[in-house]
C-alpha cells in the first residue's frame, strides 16, 4: 500500500523520520512492514510505502505509534 497524509504547513523531514521510527517500533504485532516514506514539505504531504495485510492494519500502526493516520490508502504494485 501507499498511504498519503496531508498535514499542511510545518511538516519537516526530521518530524517524519521520528514518526517513521515510531512506526517501525510498533509494526511487528500487526503484521505490517513500513518500508519507505517521502515528504513534500512545501505541500505538507507525507507518502508511506507499506506492506500490510490490509489498509486498516497499516493505519492501526500509525494510530498506535503517533496518531497521524493517513487520509487515503492505495493498493499498489511495484513495476520495473
What is the topological layout?
Blueprint: E1 2-6, H1 13-26, E2 33-40, E3 45-51, H2 55-65, E4 72-74
Antiparallel strand pairs: 1-3, 1-4, 2-3
Strand order of the largest sheet: 2-3-1-4
Tell the overall outline.
globular
Cα radius of gyration in angstroms: 12 Å
> How would you characterize the largest beta sheet?
4 strands, antiparallel
Q: How large is the count of helical segments?
A: 2
Structural class computed from helices and strand pairing = alpha+beta
Q: Strand-residue fraction?
A: 25-35%
Number of strands: 4
Poorly predicted tracts of residues: none
Mean pLDDT: 96
The amount of helix comes to 25-40%
Q: Could you give the distance between the termini?
A: 17 Å
Secondary-structure element order, N to C: EHEEHE
Task: Please tell me about this protein's structure.
The protein has 80 residues and is an alpha+beta fold. It is 31% helix and 29% strand. The chain has two helices and four strands; from the N terminus they run βαββαβ. Strands 2-3-1-4 form a four-stranded antiparallel β-sheet, covered by helices on one side. Helix 1 packs across helix 2. The longest helix has 14 residues. The two termini are 17 Å apart.
Amino acid at each position: 500500500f501507499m498511504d498519503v497524509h496531508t498535514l499542511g504547513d510545518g511538516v519537516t523531514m526530521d518530524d517524519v523520520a521520528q514518526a517513521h521510527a515510531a512506526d517501525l517500533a510498533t509494526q511487528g504485532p500487526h503484521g505490517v512492514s513500513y518500508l519507505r516514506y517521502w515528504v513534500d514539505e512545501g505541500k505538507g504531504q507525507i507518502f508511506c510505502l507499506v506492506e500490510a495485510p490490509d489498509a486498516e492494519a497499516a493505519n492501526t500502526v500509525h494510530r498506535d505509534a503517533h496518531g497521524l493516520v493517513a487520509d487515503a490508502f492505495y493498493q499498489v504494485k511495484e513495476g520495473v
